[in-house]
Amino acid sequence: xxxxxxxxxxxxxxxxxxxxxxxxxxxxxxxxxxxxxxxxxxxxxxxxxxxxxxxxxxxxxxxxxxxxxxxxxxxxxxxxxxxxxxxxxxxxxxxxxxxxxxxxxxxxxxxxxxxxxxx
Length: 119
Hints:
Blueprint: E1 2-11, H1 17-35, E2 42-49, H2 59-64, E3 72-76, E4 87-96, E5 106-108
């Protein structure tokens, strides 16, 4: 088994607790499903949010999904002029038997423009 990184991102329309939590859960569930990941295989998870999102930590959504033993951290995304606003990004570190080119990175809603090469 090897350690793999899985990336993903999702946009929200408003800086509200419910929207951040619901969309973070949607993103995490999609990453887990398409990559066939078991919770015990997740090593850690890094969340970043754009500076316009501060209503709640996205890690709260992971805890609500039962990720109670997984190390989580939330940080602000680097501010780049003209970049996409209201975005939650994730980097999962997982144990996997998959090769790097078998990993499916997930970009949802307006965040799909961040990785047009994955379409």
